[in-house]
Amino acid sequence: MHELALSQGIVTMIEEQAAAQGFTRVRTVRLVIGALSHVEPEALAFGFDAVSRGTLAEGAALEIERPPGQAWCLACERAVEVAERFDPCPTCGGHQMVLTGGDEMRVKELEVE
Ligand SMILES: [Zn+2]
Predict the structure, then answer these.
(1) Inter-residue contact 108 to 65 (CB < 8 Å)
(2) What is the domain count for the chain?
(3) What is the mean pLDDT of the chain?
(4) What is the largest CA-CA distance in the chain?
(5) Is 2 assigned a ligand-binding role in the annotation?
(6) Tens-place pLDDT, residues 40-50
(7) FRET partner for 23 with CA separation of 20 to 30 A, picked from 85, 88, 91, 104?
């Protein structure tokens, strides 16, 4: 399961941060998961719950931001929002699209104590 590996990566990152910064508990983990990133927020939350057990991230709340997919339409010469990676332009229906955002997956912030 893709999300389980991601959750493991997040917990590892938190442990590294804890070692570097000296915090002992994580209250909230703020994540950015783009709509085009192929990560299911619910599966990620479930995986995080499982892999964080027994670590300093156990019981931390996950707050997930879900920015929409963004693309630049070469025909319209403007930025548009897309729901899927290969969707046509919502304005002109064309496919000359360059994906510009919405496929990121990163930890934005940790709230620690
Ligand atoms: Zn267009």
Answers:
(1) yes
(2) 1
(3) 94
(4) 53
(5) yes
(6) 999 999 999 99
(7) 104
